[in-house]
Inverse folding.
């Protein structure tokens, strides 16, 4: 099984422009992400997919592989497909790894990779929700699954709805799952889903995976109990990450 690890990375960001190149105690954020992905036992090759020359040049400068992609891609999935198309090697799967998680655990990547087989179309990680804050936050995508552990629906709302019970008691009534943003695409399926038009559910929830479900594709879910990685969206998130790095270094 040959798996291509792709790290989409953009310079532009409404909340934190240029964050892939910020210094994190001697290494940039994108360099730390790249280094973590390289520790995976299942990923055959790692490539940073970027539309910015500065990020491209920087990745090459520390010995990494990068692909300069079009600026017009509406999502990381589309950027991943351009990288896959331009590869001279054949890969069975591509893994989309978030470029703003410098502490991503290679074991999580391997957990997802180890679940893949020729029948898998798409796969992603999920985690049990343990706090009411997570359950009620629209920033957390929730997911419900069937008996085959395939995703039925993703939502920013708290699903399923627990009838005749107050929300504060919901966690004790049933199991809730949150989506962990790591995707695996079978290569032929990645070509198909990037050709689809945005769907009504996708537009309503702003979750692209709903487009795939609406069009009949199956998303395998794999449960992880590993600690959540820190996603750096703002300068405040960076400060928190630096404190962790300094603590670990000490």
């Amino acid at each position: 099984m040959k798996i291509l690890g792709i790290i989409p990375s953009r310079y532009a960001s409404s909340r934190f422009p240029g964050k892939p190149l910020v210094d994190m105690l001697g290494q940039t954020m994108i360099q730390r992400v790249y280094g973590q992905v390289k520790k995976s036992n299942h990923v055959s090759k790692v490539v940073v997919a970027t539309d910015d020359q500065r990020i491209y040049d920087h990745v090459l400068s520390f010995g990494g592989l990068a692909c300069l992609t079009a600026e017009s891609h509406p999502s990381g999935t589309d950027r991943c497909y351009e990288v896959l198309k331009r590869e001279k090697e054949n890969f069975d799967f591509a893994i989309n790894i978030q470029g703003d998680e410098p502490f991503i655990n290679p074991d999580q990547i391997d957990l997802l990779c180890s679940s893949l087989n020729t029948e898998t179309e798409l796969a992603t990680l999920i985690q049990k929700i343990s706090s009411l804050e997570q359950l009620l936050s629209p920033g957390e995508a929730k997911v419900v699954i069937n008996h085959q552990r395939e995703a039925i629906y993703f939502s920013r709302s708290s699903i399923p709805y627990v009838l005749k019970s107050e929300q504060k008691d919901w966690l004790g009534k049933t199991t809730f799952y949150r989506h962990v943003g790591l995707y695996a695409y079978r290569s032929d399926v990645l070509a198909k889903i990037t050709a689809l038009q945005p769907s009504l559910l996708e537009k309503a929830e702003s979750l692209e995976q709903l487009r795939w479900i609406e069009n009949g594709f199956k998303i395998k879910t794999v449960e992880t109990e590993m600690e959540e990685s820190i996603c750096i969206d703002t300068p405040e998130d960076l400060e928190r990450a630096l404190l962790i790095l300094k603590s670990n270094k000490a």
Remarks:
- The CA atoms of residues 73 and 83 lie 12 Å apart.
- The first helix runs from residue 29 to 38.
- The radius of gyration is 18 Å.
- DSSP finds nine helices and eleven strands in the chain.
